[in-house]
Amino acid sequence: MSGTDLTAELVERPATPVNAEAEPALALASQRTLIWRRFKRNRLAVISLWIVGFIYLTAAFCEFVAPQGQDTYAADRAFAPPQLVKISLTSSPHVFVNGYTGTPNPETLLRDYTVDKSQRYGVRLFPKGDEYKLWGLISWDRHLVGASKHGAPFHLLGTDEQGRDQFSRLIYGTRISMSVGLIGVTAALVLGLLLGGISGYFGGLTDGIVQRVIEFFMSIPTLPLWLGLAAAVPPGWSAVKTYFAITLILSLIGWTGLARVIRSRFLQIRDEDFVLAAELDGARWYRVVGRHMLPAFTSHIIASLTLAVPGMILGETALSFLGLGLQAPAVSWGVLLGDAQSIRVLSAAPWLLSSAAAVVIAVLALNFVGDGLRDAADPYES
Predict the structure, then answer these.
(1) Residue 357, CA distances (Å) to 82, 185, 248 in order
(2) 334 backbone dihedrals φ, ψ, rounded to 5°
(3) What does the pLDDT read at residue 28?
(4) How many CB atoms are located within 10 Å of the residue 136 CB?
(5) How many of the other CB atoms lie within 10 Å of CB of 361?
(6) Most buried in the list 83, 158, 180, 339, measured by CB within 10 Å?
């Protein structure tokens, strides 16, 4: 290309606009802004964040979202298959589910269900249904979606052996299974910050003692330790006491990894200039830790906590599935999976494994969010 052609091309090419305010604004941005700016680049993490938010919103309003109560049953609908919501533009009701009839099977001793297209039950928003107390305070009988006629069959995920709606029980189980992760991680955070911070800040003999304690806990196989501690829970305890006991058990096991992370970060920054300046200024050790050192790696703690929540959820699910965690009448994803242990049940009602799908979706979403936060923890890196 000749010099004349190159000059003509440069003249014809439109100049790329330069945002002069972008770099100064980025330099003055807070740490939270920088982390969020980079987090948004990870589309998978953003989608997962929406999924996690939807799951926790469902858990918060589970009584309203569930079409029926968690213990509402119909003996004549045991192991009823899922119903398909249909739409008709020519007849009323326009949105409906077909009923079905069940006939006893003398060979399997179960009911064989056939769809009865002559039966149509309308589906509507905010229908009247089973009464409940939202958060144990507000009495109401409206639900998000359900059959227009109270008591009509509406089972999007079928029913269990007692004729209880699987979809409603799955939603109720979301509250316990997802809250176990949050409460357990919060308790593990307290232990991790306390012991990991003391170990990393003071070092020396204190560090050696704390690390030996952590190594002792980490050397014990996780599953036998879970089983042993869960078996120590008195069987006569109420569902609430058992719930908090399981949460405490998971916290006692899950704090060691977080303590190691916090200790390594303390060792990394305890000799930084801003820490030495605070100490020379006469600040006490707890102020140096709380006001200067912890804020320096808060993003890393948040990412570690997000990645620890799935482990807590899987722990509760495993214990409840093995019969050593939460038990009926409490409803969690692990309890629901425990109802699907029998091969006979699975062959007759495979939809009872829907709680396993809920566990997989929640754990994957939380892991993707945690990975996104971990990648965004150093927002100045490209």
Answers:
(1) 16, 23, 26
(2) -65, -40
(3) 63
(4) 8
(5) 14
(6) 180
Number of Cβ within a 10 Å radius of residue 149: 13
Q: Distance (Å, rounded) from C-alpha 270 to C-alpha 228? A: 39
Please give the Cα distance from 238 to 288 (Å, whole number).
43
Question: What average pLDDT does this structure show over 3-29?
Answer: 51
pLDDT digits (tens, 9 = 90+) for 112-152: 888 888 888 999 999 988 899 888 888 898 999 988 888 88
d(CA 346, CA 350): 5
Torsional sign, CA 75, 79, 85, 91: negative
Any alpha helices (H) in the chain, and if so which ranges?
3-12, 22-27, 31-39, 43-60, 62-65, 166-191, 197-202, 204-219, 222-231, 239-269, 273-280, 285-288, 298-321, 333-338, 343-348, 354-375
Report pLDDT digits (tens) over 276-335: 888 888 888 778 887 878 777 777 777 777 878 888 888 888 888 777 777 778 888 888
Q: Is the pLDDT of residue 6 over 50?
A: no
Distance between CA atoms of residues 369 and 90, nearest Å: 45
Whether 22 and 343 have beta carbons less than 8 Å apart is answered as no
Task: Give CA–CA dist 350/339, Å, rounded.
Answer: 11
